[in-house]
From TrEMBL, chains A, B:
Protein name as catalogued: HTH-type transcriptional regulator BetI
Family matches, as SUPFAM superfamilies: Homeodomain-like, Tetracyclin repressor-like, C-terminal domain
Biological role stated in the UniProt entry: Repressor involved in the biosynthesis of the osmoprotectant glycine betaine. It represses transcription of the choline transporter BetT and the genes of BetAB involved in the synthesis of glycine betaine. Repressor involved in choline regulation of the bet genes.
Gene Ontology MF terms: DNA-binding transcription factor activity; transcription cis-regulatory region binding
Originating organism: Puniceibacterium sediminis
BP GO annotations: glycine betaine biosynthetic process from choline; negative regulation of DNA-templated transcription
Gene3D superfamilies assigned to the protein according to its UniProt record, in alphabetical order: Tetracycline Repressor, domain 2 (1.10.357.10)
Domain annotation HTH tetR-type: ranges: 8-68
Feature: DNA-binding region: 31-50
Lineage, broadest ranks: Bacteria, Pseudomonadati, Pseudomonadota, Alphaproteobacteria, Rhodobacterales
Keywords: DNA-binding, Repressor, Transcription, Transcription regulation
Pathway involvement of the protein, from the record: Amine and polyamine biosynthesis; betaine biosynthesis via choline pathway [regulation]
InterPro entries recorded: BetI_C (IPR039538), DNA-bd_HTH_TetR-type_CS (IPR023772), Homeodomain-like_sf (IPR009057), HTH-type_TetR-like_transc_reg (IPR050109), HTH_TetR (IPR001647), Tet_transcr_reg_TetR-rel_C_sf (IPR036271), Tscrpt_rep_BetI (IPR017757)
Superkingdom of origin organism: Bacteria
Length: 191, 191
DNA sequence: CCTTTGATTGACTGGTCAGTCAATAAAAAC
DNA sequence: GTTTTTATTGACTGACCAGTCAATCAAAGG
């Protein structure tokens, strides 16, 4: 019973399924067949809409990054005072929609993909650039030379993701607080 | 002309070739054939000595981790004063033998492997545990409650590796200095 | 109606790769 | 000098998988 206008739904389902499969497998070596099955369609349809596995992966990556962007933008908009902005950014980075097993695993795998696929590298560099810029702005209220601290906090957030990917225990909130504590120390201990 | 006692040499060459291939490909999807060719032997011989691809990967991982351990141990032994220890550990983490394109790439890929292979996860957790322990000890000279700072510095070092894996510019020495600056700030700004 | 268009699939293909095995050859041991 | 051990490989196989294609089905448009 082919209904019309399926494309957007199928695309979304496939993207979601891709993240789920990557998370479950802990690897980019998921077959188009697995992804398609999880999305409830045939692998041929996945190829039909996306063209190839590379495009499916790319779409999944864009989805994660855009969801992340939305989270940060919302947090920034909700920040009452300039001082709030720093905490808002850090909290957004560990919000549920981003800091979740499947997403973290996919995100880690995208770093690997970036070593091979220039497009993936470009996307990741854009993400890093935005994070740096956001942190720099937020830190400027607190310190004269915010750049080094922004760099450190950006790397620290990535490091927390990496450790979360390794599994371990209840990072979920601890991570955000540790990053905030580090931010406080950087502000207080500025040279 | 089969000489005797080749096994150790072949194993070492294959391990080295594995790291090289992973670094070149930016992925664990390197074939046993590629690894073997780089090591100058047939893929059958690689299977003969290691049993399978999983064991080759595991051996490469152990090699990187043990080289890393040696670097840290040497740095710690060379530290004159207790205050030196912290800088020594951080410097060792960014020493040439560890902080090199191929090795970083392989190390990142091992984090991915750890999501699927419990043995890889175990090894990585041992590495993290040692780093935490070393940092905690070194920080105790400077602060009453070193644990949170050690946690943060460990994650920060991992984050720096992750960013180095993404390529970018001359991290090589900048990274170490940024981590040291962060350590100073944590010590100075302790609550 | 009938035809165009979008949705959807099963079946097929060409290529790749981990792992096996029997064979060869040289050193070592007896 | 024969046997054992170690080193080494080419050739094979069984599985898996991305991508293709022709066919089917139903809604929409005329």
């Amino acid at each position: 019973m082919p209904k019309i206008g399926m494309e957007p739904q199928r695309r979304a389902a496939l993207v979601q399924a891709t993240i789920g499969e990557i998370g479950a497998a802990g690897s980019l070596q998921v077959t188009v067949g697995q992804i398609a099955r999880r999305a409830g369609v045939s692998s041929a349809l996945a190829h039909h809409y996306f063209g190839g596995k590379a495009q499916i992966l790319s779409a999944a990556m864009r989805h994660i990054l855009s969801e992340y962007s939305a989270e940060v933008r919302a947090a920034l908009a909700a920040a009452k005072t300039p001082q709030d902005r720093l905490r808002a950014i850090i909290a957004a980075n560990f919000a549920e929609s981003c800091f979740e097993a499947d997403v973290i695993s996919a995100w880690l795998n995208f770093y690997v993909l970036a070593q091979r696929d220039p497009e993936a590298g470009r996307l990741l560099r854009i993400y890093q650039g935005r994070l740096r810029s956001n942190l720099t702005h937020a830190l400027r209220v607190h310190m004269a030379r915010p750049e080094p601290a922004a760099e450190v906090l950006g790397a620290l957030i990535d490091g927390m993701y990496l450790r979360a990917a390794l599994g371990g225990a209840g990072f979920e909130q601890g991570a955000a607080e540790q990053v905030m504590a580090c931010a406080d120390a950087l502000i207080r201990g500025q040279t």
